[in-house]
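Hey team,

Filing this mostly as a record. A colleague (T.K.) asked me to run one chain through the structure pipeline before their review meeting, and I want the input and output archived in the tracker in case anyone asks later how it was produced. No errors, nothing strange. Just documentation.

Input sequence:
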Amino acid sequence: MLEIRVCDNYEAAKSLILDYSKIKGAEACFVSLDKELADLEGFYKDGALLLGYEENNPIATIAIRKMDDNVAEAKRLYINPDSRGRGYARHMLNAMLDKCRDLGFGEVRFTTKPEVMSIGYALYKRMGFEELENNAGTVLMRMVF
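Output structure:
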């Protein structure tokens, strides 16, 4: 069972985000990683950083960053490899969407690389995210509420 909380352990969040940053092919997603990790709380101010827990062990992240008053950017969806295959990504995405609505956003966007994250990309499509553009294999997607 997955329990999702607003971040209450920034060291665990940093560790999960660092693990995510090591995925081969995902390097371009982490251009501002040092700045982000230096101040996670400030980086996601006016948004949120969510942690997913399995038996009180932090195993998943997803973050929301404010782009403007109506649009948020979702970032850092990551499930620890040992906990994959249990539907947790969908739970994390639904928690992120609920939090975006609670924060008053009307749209959420994110970028993904389908050739690197094919399972996630297929899930986003099934959940109703629409593709806005494909720039050299990096896809911008969104959902409007």
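Quick notes for T.K.: The mean pLDDT is 93. The two ends are 27 Å apart (CA to CA).
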